[in-house]
Amino acid sequence: MKLRKIIAIAGIAFLFNNAFGATSSSELKNDLSSALTDMSNSMLEEFETILPQSNSLLSVQPDAYIGKLLPSIPPHFAVGLNFSVTPVTVDFISDNIDKVTDVIKGIDGFDGNLAFDLPISGKLPYPAAAINARVGGLFLPFDVGVNAVTTGSIFNDKSFGDKLSLDFNYTSAGFDLRYAVLEGNGLLPKISLGGGYQFVRQQIGFGFSNSFEADIDAEHSADVYTSADVNLKIDTHTVFAQIQVSKTLLIFTPYIGLKAMFTTANCAYDWNYNTKLNGNPFPQLSDRASDSYKDTVADIGIQTQVFGGLSLNLAVFQTSFNAAYNFSSKLFTGAIGLAIKL
Asked: Which DSSP string do the residues of 123-192 spell out, in sequence order?
């Protein structure tokens, strides 16, 4: 690099470091780092309640008890697919991004548009889906259900506009066991007590970048380019207990139940941001960090839920319309299930 260019870059960096008065580049660096750390922790905290709720209907079976596998003619089992949607406000995403950009926009001398246009607004229909199967018990009146799905990378760092990119990866698996305390007959409903476990792994990454001009003083300005990447990973482990009541009427099976969920979460994040002045790295405004931790049931709280719905039964085909409301997180989930059931 030529000496003249080195002197020019050094001069711009010196002016840039001293142009903000009380806010030095080291203070700005600390503010940005703090904002990105707060963003990571805040979003992981939101997912700790979203994920157990959004996955709570993946193995739901409208019949409180499907019958025995053996001895039984025909043997009782079901296999199908459930798809659910949980509307969640996007404020926890946009508000955290705004906190980062506000750090930069609050600096005297900056002249640029730092707004990030998210591809969604209002509420985000947070999806979940799984293939599920259920088999009746042997000799005793119980049944066992399992569910699983994995998506791989969905967005694969897809860009939304020229400032925001997203990546998304999701895995879920679980099982449950229900015991019929009342097997039901022509007059009485089916009533079962049950419990189970649901694992969810959520990985989400997003990057944002912007270019703008900083007016350093009356005679000098610099082209500034900033970029940041945030990667979040959370594993939730939910143990639950439930009671369910159902009654088949002709070709319809309405049902209702109550559930208590106990969740622990393993959380991890890493982030980095980089700044360039006139195309050259500016380490005084570049940083990176990572952390991991575990939240217990005491940290997250016990989640209580009411769930219910209605199924349409035509021969061996069952279509169910399901819903759940979480009294603790105030989240609502709707789901559709398609199954072959004997």
From this structure: EEEEEEEEEEEEEE-BSSSEEEEEEEEEEEESSSSEEETTTEEEEEEEEEEEEEEEEEEE---SSSPEEE
| Residue 43 and residue 99 in contact, taking contact as beta carbons nearer than 8 Å | no
Reported pTM: 0.84
Q: Residue 263: is it exposed, middle or buried by C-beta count within 10 angstroms (0-12/13-18/19+)? A: buried
Cα 27 to Cα 146, 258, 334: the distances in Å are: 52, 51, 46
Helix (H, G, I), strand (E, B) or coil at 217: coil
Report the length, in residues, of the chain.
Answer: 342
Dump pLDDT digits (tens) for 2-56.
434 333 333 444 444 544 443 466 777 787 788 889 888 988 999 999 999 999 9
**What's the token pair of residue 232?**
């979040």
For residues 145 and 61, is the Cβ–Cβ distance under 8 A?
A: yes
Q: How far apart are CA 338 and CA 126, in angstroms?
A: 20
